[in-house]
Automatic annotation (TrEMBL):
Keywords: Guanine-nucleotide releasing factor
GO terms under cellular component: plasma membrane
Protein name per Swiss-Prot or TrEMBL: Ras-GEF domain-containing protein
PANTHER family: GUANINE NUCLEOTIDE EXCHANGE FACTOR, RAS-GEF DOMAIN-CONTAINING FAMILY MEMBER 1B
Positions of the Ras-GEF domain: 206-449
BP term (GO), one: Ras protein signal transduction
Organism: Amphiprion ocellaris
Stored PROSITE patterns: RASGEF, RASGEF_CAT, RASGEF_NTER
Gene Ontology terms, MF aspect: guanyl-nucleotide exchange factor activity
């Protein structure tokens, strides 16, 4: 069997030797290869290609690509049920008279497939139907006399439960953080004179430290985004499926949405921090501070916080403060905007991103490994890849060449999100960044009326988001992701 194409950033979810058992004595009918790469296949054939046999174990990149993309055509719990059925039927796991030697050979491979699934796509197993199928199959595997199988299955189950528990704790923490932020904003609006509104500069006046704390938040929130969310955010009805879309009844991109909401919060926090001071001198100092924070974010490789800060400083309530801007040394800001220039499809940013990625690959320190992409552009790239190619060919085959490219992009993201932040946490700064009151553009405009006349001309700084917004809004978006982009871009 020809090898599937490897891609950079390939996941290392286990110690299993990926070079073992990649060949099959005869291919399942329904798979089509081009230049020795799997190009397309029927859903049934692709499922068969996923299931190990005594003499075959699927290529690691195929496992990731198929588990990532299959949810466009079949529910994960249905796929798990099919996999379990094939394992039981093909390998006669349910037959008490089955050859014990055969079971001993196949059991570790089936267990390895399940381990890769639970490690890379653990959120699939929040579905009770997934857990039932998993328990049924592992019970069959454990019925043999191999002690190692039982030990490995126990480790797999414990690891899955641990990941799901951590996810639940993270989601609960987000709810508390958002509630605290809402309470602080309500209190400030109820008693604007009595409430003492602190600013970020009173908490910390060191741009590098603030950039480090922003990086903590970014990496934590990135780490909880499942790779499947990039697919499920764009999922639409399968033309060969008479039922509704696989995910029309469930919200399956919540961690991705939470990350988008963080970007929005940071942008509005920057605008709020600049507009709240009454004196122009103080406002100018806050502007220069955030310019320095943005520069440190760029140096770290935190492009998402960098763009959020630029976005906040380009909001109308900030950009129209002509007298304040006249007191700011904008040379550094101009350089940063040049780096994020959207012309030529963000050529400057993409060059910087490639440089940061290469630095991460050859890193000698944990700090050099950090790559935090400009997230809305990453989603945009994946969206247009999804829109630009059909999921199914005219013969009904799944267009697997498209999903190789999709998996390549998502796999690179998976590498970035696994980096642990090397900087020491500052709880006070983190708490402020996550819960300080932020105002809408309209509220900030009202605030500015006291400091700048309403007819003052705007300062026309280049706004990267306007370019993305115009290019995106020209095309029809599937409703949920359209709302995400709208929240990012306005």
């Amino acid at each position: 069997m020809p090898q599937t194409p490897p891609f950079s950033g390939q996941l290392n979810t286990s110690s299993y030797n990926k070079n073992l058992y990649q060949s099959k004595e005869e291919g399942y009918p329904g798979l089509y290869y081009h230049d020795n790469n799997l190009a397309s296949g029927s859903l049934e054939a692709l499922i068969h290609h996923l299931v190990p046999t005594v003499d075959y174990y699927p290529d690691r990149t195929y496992i990731f690509t198929f588990l990532l993309s299959s949810r466009l055509f079949i529910h994960p719990y249905e796929l798990m049920s099919r996999v379990c059925h094939l394992c039981m039927e093909q390998q006669r796991l349910g037959d008490p008279q089955a050859d014990k030697m055969r079971v001993r050979k196949i059991a570790p491979k089936i267990l390895q497939l399940l381990t890769e699934w639970t490690e890379t796509f653990p959120y699939d197993f929040r579905d009770e139907r997934m857990m039932r199928s998993l328990k049924e199959l592992t019970h069959r595997l454990a019925s043999g006399d191999e002690k190692d199988n039982g030990t490995n299955m126990g480790q797999m189950s414990q690891g899955l439960i641990r990941r799901l528990t951590v996810l639940s704790q993270y989601e609960e923490a987000l709810v508390k953080i958002n509630a605290t932020a809402a309470e602080r904003l309500t209190a400030l609006k109820a008693k604007p004179q009595a409430a003492i509104q602190r600013d970020l500069l009173s908490i910390c006046n060191d741009p590098f430290t603030v950039a480090q704390q922003l990086t903590h938040i970014e990496l934590e929130r990135l780490s909880y985004i499942g790779p499947e969310e990039f697919v499920q955010a764009f999922v639409q009805k399968d033309p060969l499926d008479n039922d509704k879309s696989c995910f029309s009844d469930h919200k399956k991109a919540s961690n991705l949405e939470a990350y988008v909401e963080w970007f929005n919060r940071l942008s509005y926090l920057v605008a709020t921090e600049i507009c709240m001071p009454v004196k122009k001198k103080h406002r100018a100092r806050v502007m220069e501070f955030f310019i320095d924070v943005a520069r440190e974010c760029f140096n770290i490789g935190n492009f998402n916080s960098l763009m959020a800060i630029i976005s906040g400083m380009n909001m109308s309530p900030v950009s129209r403060l002509k007298k304040t801007w006249s007191k700011v040394k904008t040379a550094k800001f101009d350089i940063l905007e040049h780096q994020m220039d959207p012309s030529s499809n963000f050529y400057n940013y993409r060059t910087a991103l490639r440089g940061a990625t290469q630095r991460s690959i050859t890193a000698n320190s944990s700090r050099e490994k950090i790559v935090i992409p400009f997230f809305s552009l990453l989603i945009k790239d994946i969206y247009f890849l999804n829109e630009g190619c059909v999921n199914r060919l005219q013969n009904g085959h799944i267009n697997f060449e498209k999903f190789w490219e999709l998996a390549k992009q998502v796999s690179e993201f998976m590498t970035w999100k696994k980096v642990e932040c090397p900087f020491e946490k500052d709880r006070k700064i983190l708490q402020y960044l996550l819960t300080a009151p932020v105002f809408t553009e309209d509220e900030l405009e009202v605030r500015n009326e006291k400091s700048a006349p309403s007819n003052a001309p705007e300062i026309t700084y280049f706004t990267a988001f306007q370019s993305i917004r115009s290019s995106l809004m020209k095309r029809h978006f599937y409703a949920p992701i359209s709302n995400l982009f709208y929240n990012i871009l306005v």
